[in-house]
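Researcher: Structure prediction, please.
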Amino acid sequence: MPKRSSILLILRCKICRCAFRVRPSALKNGKCCCSRMCADLSKKINGIPANKRGSFKKCNYCNQDFYVQTCDTQRRKFCSQKCYSAHLRTQVGSLAYAWSGVRSNDSTMRDSAEAKAWRIKVFTRDNFTCAYCGKRGGNLEAHHLKPFSTHPDLRFDVSNGQTLCEPCHRTTDSFGSKTRRHKQIGEWKQQVILP
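Model: Predicted structure follows.
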């Protein structure tokens, strides 16, 4: 009986039609192409992905089928970055996932020409000096004495402003989201503490 490794069959490649030798065990496993390049091309033509562990899904944007590996089936919703970006461009205003029903223009007001002019007026009034530590120049910030979000009528009033350096500004009660937290704590105290 001949050795197992010496038994070879001659087949024709499905893609390039050239003859190639193959072992019977490889034929049982589905080998039908002469090279890796022809095998990849065959899978591409037949729509079978190179890695067979996974499934096909429909793209949420273009509705085309695309292959997803098993580990990504829950996460992947789009066939490409191009479809994902196009989908994001459609999610504005009331279509956005975080739409609350109210359009806020606080962020655009903070970057407006009026806000920049207000900052400069506050800085010049205070002679570019921090009101807390007395440091002159450096990284200065204009601080609203009464918070920007809760007092819209005082947003651009120079008397509501104060020049502070960055470290001193962080210590104020209304820096960043502290205003919201203080408001929530105050409401909680009113509910818990008996009158």
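Model: The chain is about 35% helix and 15% strand.
Researcher: Thanks, that helps.
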